[in-house]
Amino acid sequence: MTSRSIIAVLRGITPDEAVAVAEVLLEAGIDRIEVPLNSPRPLDSISAMAQAMGDHVLVGAGTVTATDEVREVADAGGRLVLSPHLDPAIVAETKRLGLQSWPGVFTPTEAFRALACGADGLKLFPADHLGPSALAALRVVLPKRTRIFAFGGAGASNFAAWLAAGADGFGVGGALFSPGLPAAEVAERARHVVAAYDAAMAEVARYQGP
Fold first, then answer.
1. What are the φ/ψ torsions at residue 92 (nearest 5 degrees)?
2. pLDDT by residue (tens digit) across 114-161?
3. Range of the domain at 126
4. Which residues participate in catalysis according to the annotation?
């Protein structure tokens, strides 16, 4: 199955919903999942998905704001740590434990500092307050292999603009999931998001040429 560069942000998910939602996301082509730590019993949801999905899905936590939370995520089986901000101590602890580190950045200073700290990728947040043009400008000065995912305001309607500006992927939340949404509805939303992503990738490829 083709993997898309989309991280599903399941804010508010419960452990009882977790596995069913992870299964339909994977079936649709989304194999990266973030459970924000301000969700109900987030570590239980991470553990349930990690055990049920194994290596088929990269599961982790978002809204990570302290180093002890990084350790809790690792103990639950999570392999991905995302924060709304850059904290070098969180990045260091994440890498010490062998997990992927994606700190939130908003400025060039934060972006370069995150890379110097060892971040695996950058979470551009809140992306809608910057826009694709800001990302395009940032791309000019960042190392070429830097991975940047746009979070907040990036979605089916503007994937192409963000991709053309240099985004490597996206964090998608409310367009995929809201608390209490049946798995069947999540599946339908996921198929729509994936179709829009695939179309945007094809559009950008045509524009850029061989």
1. -65, -45
2. 999 999 999 999 999 999 999 999 999 999 999 999 999 999 999 999
3. 6-208
4. 34, 123
